[in-house]
What we know:
By secondary structure, this protein is of the alpha/beta class. It has helices at residues 11-20, 46-51, 115-118, 125-136, 151-163, 184-196, 237-240, 281-299, 337-354; strands at 2-7, 29-35, 40-41, 60-61, 69-73, 76-80, 85-88, 94-95, 98-101, 105-107, 143-147, 168-172, 200-202, 207-211, 214-217, 220-223, 226-229, 233-235, 259-260, 263-268, 315-320, 324-329, 332-335.
Amino acid sequence: MKHLVLLGGGYGNMRVLLRLLPNQLPEDVTITLVDKFPYHSLKTEYYALAAGTISDQEVRVTFPEHPRLNLVYGEITKIDLESKQVLIKDNDAIPYDDLVIGLGCEDKYHNVPGADEYTHSIQSIDKSRQTYQTLSNMPAGSKVGIVGAGLSGIELASELRESRPDLDITLFDRGSRILKDFPERLSKYIHKWFVDHGVEVINSANITKVEPHTIYNHDDAYPMNAVVWTAGIQPNRIVREMDVEKDGSGRVKLSPHHNLPEDEHVYVVGDCASLPHAPSAQLAEEQAEQIVQVLVKRWKNEPLPAEMPQMKLKGILGSLGKKQGFGFVADRAITGRVARFLKSGVLWMYKYHNG
C-alpha cells in the first residue's frame, strides 16, 4: 500500500483531494492530510474576516471524508527527506511514499525594524482573528495604517472603510501608482474609490521603521493606533529550513513535473514553489492539477511527458467593499459592480465544489 502525505490543507492540496477523491484514487494508495486546523480556510477572504464584515465560519470549509483519507491535526516541526517522514509536535512521525508540501506563506518584513513586532497580519486565520479583535475594538477616530497596496492591502482598506467609517485609514503603497503592473485604468479607478471614501493613499512609500503607535515613511513619522502589514510574503518556516535548492525569494526550485530535482517523490505546491507567476490561490490550484496527473502516471508506471503544459491564469478579481470591485480578466480591465459580482460568483462556486 502506497502512502501519499499532504502537508497543509490550503488551495493546492484541496485541489489534489478534489481530483483524487472519491473515484480517482488507486486502490493501493492511502492519503494522510496534515494541518494545524480541522478545516480548510479561505485565505483570499481573510481581509473581510479582519475587517469584521464576515464571520469566522464563512471562511471555513470542511475537509472531505473518505475511507482511505486520514486527517492529522498538529504542528509540523520538520520534514526529514532522508528518512522519508514528517515530524509532528506531540505526535508520532508520519512516514510517506509520496509527499506534497503545501504549507503556504508567512509575512515578509524586508528587515524593517519593528515591523514583525508592532504590526498585525492577515496571513493566517488565527492572525486575522487577532487583527479583527484589534481593529473592531478601536475607539472612533483611531488611525490605522495598512502597509502594502497589493490585492490584500486594497481589499482590507476598502472593507475596513465600510466596516468602520469612523476610522482614519492610510494605505502606504511602494509603487508610483496602485497595481502598477496592471492597466492604468484600474489604478485610477481604485485610487478614485479611496479618495471618494476618505482613505488616504501614499504612493512611492518606503517604510523604514515601525514603533509602538508610530510608523516611519522615508523617516517621516506617522502616528498610528494600529498598523497592518500586507507588504510581502515568504515561504513557511519549515520550507525555509529545508536543505534544498531555492530561488532568490526562498521558494523551492522544482523539476518540470513539480517535484524536487533530486527526489521524484517529493512535490511542492503553491506559495512555497518557485513558479513563473506570482503566488496565488489560482496558481496553486493549476499546479495541483498537474501534480495529480504526474502522481497517477507514476503510480501506474506510465511514462511522463518531457514538459508539462504551461499554466495559464484566468486573471485577478478584487473587491472594493461589498458593492464595487475590479479585475483584469482575458487581458481586459473590468470595474464596478460587474467585477464584484464575478468575484462573489467565483467564491460561491469554490465553496459549492469543496464544501
